[in-house]
Amino acid sequence: MSAPSGSAGRFTYAASGVDIDAGERAVTLMRSAVERTNRPEVVGGLGGFAGLFALDVTKYRRPLLASSTDGVGTKIALARQLDRHDTVGIDLVAMVVDDLVACGAEPLFLQDYVACGRVVPERIAAIVTGIAEGCTRSGAALVGGETAEHGDLMAPEDYDLAATAVGVVEADAVLGPARVRPGDAVVAMASSGFHSNGYSLVRRVVADAGLDLAATPTGLDRPLGDVLLEPTRIYALDCLALVAELGTDGVHAFAHITGGGLAGNTVRVVPEGLEAVLDRGTWALPPAVRLLEEQGVPREESERAFNCGVGMVAALAPADADRAVSLLTARGVPAWIAGTVQESPGRAASARLVGTYR
């Protein structure tokens, strides 16, 4: 059947909401940043149908592959509001690689997925450049990904991010609750801010309280928008350095503090019959959290929704705790002994906060 008169050339992919040329320009803009993340094991380059990684199994006695998938969440809405897109990629990488290292795994490679309503090459390139920066900070190679334009599903300025990372750990070196013992010290590692959790609550408070993102509230040292967009600290290489120095006799577990807060994530590495007790008096509640509490967020809710200044904790043999703090501090990660693991016979695993913040 012939096309109706006058309809020839009327339908194109671009007119339907998918601009192939814009996608190709975005790839061109991000190429050099992606290539800088390459590790020696990466085979091929950007543009293939699959990312290839040559795992050298001769380096390991019994390697286990570890994988993690996550996104950035509604922090992206804040990035769109401020039209700043160069840091959410770092957040994305942090969410997956810091989950990997919690079991002792070295991040090997990562693949990202960017869904958007409209491909704006410069914006996509800024996002992926941030992802590449996060990969550099964690030692992972960015071996591929996907940018999908979904004009029928998303508004033109909308986008969302997800990623999957793969790591490797020796089977006899997996960290976790099975290694945690009574008397273990709990070492806290400072967060860089809210990281990538709790932003639905953060944004609701900012909007309802009429807080100005361009202003610097009392107690903060820079505009509120800058504080809220501060990228997530990536702990992967620092945690791996700790294990390399102290071994698994010294380092027993890591807990990545994400949604659910400090107690809610610490308990994930505590075995039955034990309790992690963390002393609030060993650190100061971040000013940005206090600001939100002043606007009506209850303390109990803060400690469930936000990391409250601690982005990662380690359970360690008590004799190694001071050495761990010194090593982390020397690597630029503020750290301190925040508590201990105690016996709690006959009870389910638990974690709780005691005392008052400084």
From TrEMBL:
Protein's name in the database: Phosphoribosylformylglycinamidine cyclo-ligase
Primary subcellular site in the record, as a coarse category: cytoplasm
Cited Gene3D superfamilies: PurM-like C-terminal domain, PurM-like, N-terminal domain
Recorded metabolic or biological pathway in which this protein acts: Purine metabolism; IMP biosynthesis via de novo pathway; 5-amino-1-(5-phospho-D-ribosyl)imidazole from N(2)-formyl-N(1)-(5-phospho-D-ribosyl)glycinamide: step 2/2
A GO biological process held by the record: adenine biosynthetic process
One annotated Gene Ontology cellular component of this protein: cytosol
Family: Belongs to the AIR synthase family.
InterPro entries linked: PurM-like_C_dom (IPR010918), PurM-like_C_sf (IPR036676), PurM-like_N (IPR016188), PurM-like_N_sf (IPR036921), PurM_cligase (IPR004733)
Pfam name, any one: AIRS
Catalytic activity of the protein: 2-formamido-N(1)-(5-O-phospho-beta-D-ribosyl)acetamidine + ATP = 5-amino-1-(5-phospho-beta-D-ribosyl)imidazole + ADP + phosphate + H(+)
Keywords recorded for this protein, A-Z: ATP-binding, Cytoplasm, Ligase, Nucleotide-binding, Purine biosynthesis
Endpoints of the signal sequence: none
NCBIfam families the UniProt entry points to: purM
EC number: 6.3.3.1
Domain PurM-like C-terminal span(s) in chain numbering: 181-346
Subcellular location: Cytoplasm
HAMAP family: AIRS
CDD domains the record matches: PurM (cd02196)
GO molecular function: ATP binding; phosphoribosylamine-glycine ligase activity; phosphoribosylformylglycinamidine cyclo-ligase activity
UniProt organism field: Trujillonella endophytica
